[in-house]
């Protein structure tokens, strides 16, 4: 059976172009992946009558409408009221949600205001969609024709798990949707999009289901394999041989599958090899440490690091020689190597990694332009160093240098 | 006079979530800034009947519709046909556009195909919107009521100049729009959306122009003041008194105006007060340093920091007493205070800030649950400490703890 829906994003800021509506893209992707057809999407302001009119019109065209946003506690959060108008329902207090919210505020040591209470109200007879990440519950309400409006919060971190764990399973169950698309991501690093195309072009052309796509990000590319089948197991069987072939062709560049981040892949490799890591950062300013400490369990292999922004800190905390800084400067191969060794020795780890460069916008010279970054990895046996010049603004340079450092570290670990 | 429009983005890929619709955001921004009200936006697939139905419905609600996409040469480019259906018009060949296209292809040394010819056709009686960057012209067509549909290509590089140089001037001229909107942002931290709503609710309700809105992010909120006036100066005059009143009511929580980040506000305050900063991070794992080093010029006031993930690093690099760790543990007020002092003393700065907590998912206990974070700031005179328990997953806890640390640091600096 098929299910046809429209999406409605609520928020005046969307109509003013002050916020990019990433929710609609995410919901559309997830629904498509789960065999649910999206026939149209809409954004409407915080206006009760217009939201209700948009919902009514959509319900004439499709089986159901999914809304994001407008469930907050403020006076201009009106989605719930508009849904009731459109479906001819009253709201009622949902006690379990109210209790959950009271516990939430208690745990934050904050007092719950009266206007938060409103968030625990849902249309009479609606099913609650739980919000494991926040206060406001979502809900799905039906009209007498059996058509539905499902409403979720606009905060992506709250909406995404609600969609994946509650709304999509509920809709697939209720509408008996069997087919689904299973997607396998292979994450590569330090390999260009055109190089990947070149290596897998024939597979790319040969295969319709599973379908292959290459997505390029900041300094890394994902190869996406999508298989449409009636069960996940069947889809995995279709994906497996293609995945093996692609892994073989991209050998040494695929650092992780599916949702594993490069940081998680590094933490996993360090744990597998029983080694510990310390970071010494200048231009990346803590981003490298952040990428690693973002991984649960990182503390077992990552002991710590130094953000050595000032030369005095490079000398005092990492033991970089004053002579080195005088002779070749802070942005140099020797400084990077001494920082990496210093981090390893001072923090007593197996491996030290260092970054030093010019993030800009100022500080560049003809010999050392903005974007020049030196990297070093010291394992106590064979110190290695690299330099690259990154383009873009300060943020882009810091992000790309961090991605590169992670990629270099992963490759060194992968081969060790 | 006012002009009310809706936007329609055409393309099946938008409904599959394969493409983020940046056109709608851009058009909405430009129209808002030029005093043209957007009442709703829509995305619809490459389906002639659905595009036409969407246009007809919108024209019942507003003065005009602006579409992007679906003007290309392929069989699934159907916007023009749908516009003709909606307005009851035929298409006609626009000779000047045909010649321009022929010249364009000639200049590219490419032969123009028959299907490109179709791009030179426009609804009978429509005005052409020139396309200085590509082949397909845009157009604006009117129905007998004087309502319009304006269609532009979906390629942003072609759409943006067509909008700025042709469509917006034409609309402002035709509808005699003198007004433009000026927006002021006030960035607050450590104050909940509902608390802000509570404090300014009356202003919120009282004022239509300037209009007030509250936008919530990760642990911080922006208050937005939008004034519609015939000049920027006039708008600023309307904003000023309201801004003063809101600043008074949110005193101690507004860290910046317009585009300044909390990190930039901290770097500015440090520079103004001639003070230097060092960070000592456990659970925030480098995110605090990252937020500060993201600011151009941070190196003048931020000397560096230590990511002290392992206790040995807290002891060795920050001088935390082994006895402290044995007696009260790493996640404690005493450890936070010793880390902050250690950072200040070791890195020889005026101020040291420290974070130590349990980011999870594991490591929590009944006394010290996941999410508990201690913060300390040491200025060599009056060390201060705070503790909060944050909710959410590891990433949320790390992000919220970082935002809280920045907020605490900003408040301490603001009062010093």
Features:
homodimer, 416 residues, Alpha-Beta Plaits, Maf protein, 3 domains, 6-stranded mixed β-sheet, 5-stranded mixed β-sheet, 15 helices, globular
How are the SSEs ordered, and which strands pair?
The structure is a homodimer of 416-residue chains.
Chain A: E1 4-10, H1 12-15, H2 22-33, E2 37-44, H3 48-61, E3 64-68, H4 79-87, E4 91-93, H5 95-107, H6 114-117, E5 121-123, E6 127-129, E7 138-142, E8 148-152, H7 156-174, E9 180-189, H8 193-206, E10 211-217, E11 220-229, H9 232-249, E12 254-257, H10 262-272, E13 277-281, H11 287-293, E14 302-308, H12 311-318, H13 322-328, H14 333-346, E15 351-357, E16 372-378, E17 384-389, H15 394-415
Parallel strand pairs in A: 1-2, 1-3, 3-8, 13-14, 13-15
Antiparallel strand pairs in A: 4-5, 6-7, 7-8, 9-11, 9-12, 10-11, 15-16, 16-17
């Amino acid at each position: 059976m098929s299910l046809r829906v429209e999406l409605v994003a609520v928020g005046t800021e969307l109509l003013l172009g002050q916020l990019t509506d990433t929710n609609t893209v995410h919901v559309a992707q997830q629904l498509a992946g789960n065999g649910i057809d999206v026939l149209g999407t809409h954004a409407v302001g915080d206006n009760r009558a217009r939201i209700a009119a948009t919902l009514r019109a959509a319900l004439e065209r499709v089986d159901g409408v999914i809304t994001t946003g407008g469930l907050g506690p403020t006076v201009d959060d009106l989605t719930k009221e508009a849904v009731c108008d459109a479906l001819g329902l009253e709201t009622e207090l949902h006690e379990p949600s109210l209790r959950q919210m009271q516990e939430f505020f208690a745990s934050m040591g904050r007092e719950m205001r009266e206007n938060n209470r409103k968030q625990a109200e849902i249309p009479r007879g609606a099913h609650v969609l739980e919000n494991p990440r926040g206060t406001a519950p979502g809900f799905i309400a039906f009209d007498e024709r059996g058509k539905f409006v499902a409403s979720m919060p606009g905060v992506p971190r709250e909406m995404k798990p609600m969609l994946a764990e509650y709304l999509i399973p509920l809709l697939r169950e209720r509408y008996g949707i069997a087919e689904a698309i299973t997607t396998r991501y292979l994450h590569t690093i330090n390999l260009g999009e055109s190089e990947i195309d070149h290596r897998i072009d024939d597979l790319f052309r040969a295969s319709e289901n599973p379908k292959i796509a290459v997505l390029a990000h900041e300094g890394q590319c994902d190869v996406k394999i999508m298989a449409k089948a009636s069960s996940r197991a069947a889809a995995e069987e279709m994906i497996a041989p293609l995945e093996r072939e692609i892994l073989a062709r991209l050998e040494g560049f695929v650092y992780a599958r599916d949702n594993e981040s490069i940081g998680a892949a590094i933490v996993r490799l360090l744990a597998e090899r029983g080694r510990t890591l310390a970071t010494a950062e200048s231009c990346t300013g803590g981003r490298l440490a952040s990428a690693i400490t973002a991984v649960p369990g990182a503390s077992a292999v990552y002991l710590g690091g130094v953000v050595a922004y000032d030369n005095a800190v490079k000398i005092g905390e990492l033991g970089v020689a004053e002579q080195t800084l005088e002779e070749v400067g802070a942005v140099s191969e020797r400084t990077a190597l001494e920082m990496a060794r210093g981090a390893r020795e001072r923090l007593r780890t197996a491996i030290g990694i260092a970054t030093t460069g010019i993030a800009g916008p100022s500080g560049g010279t003809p010999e050392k332009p903005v974007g020049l970054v030196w990297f070093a990895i010291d394992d106590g046996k064979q110190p290695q160093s690299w330099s690259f010049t990154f383009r873009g603004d300060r943020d882009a340079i810091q992000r790309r240098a961090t991605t590169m450092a992670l990629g270099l570290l992963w490759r060194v670990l992968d081969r060790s």
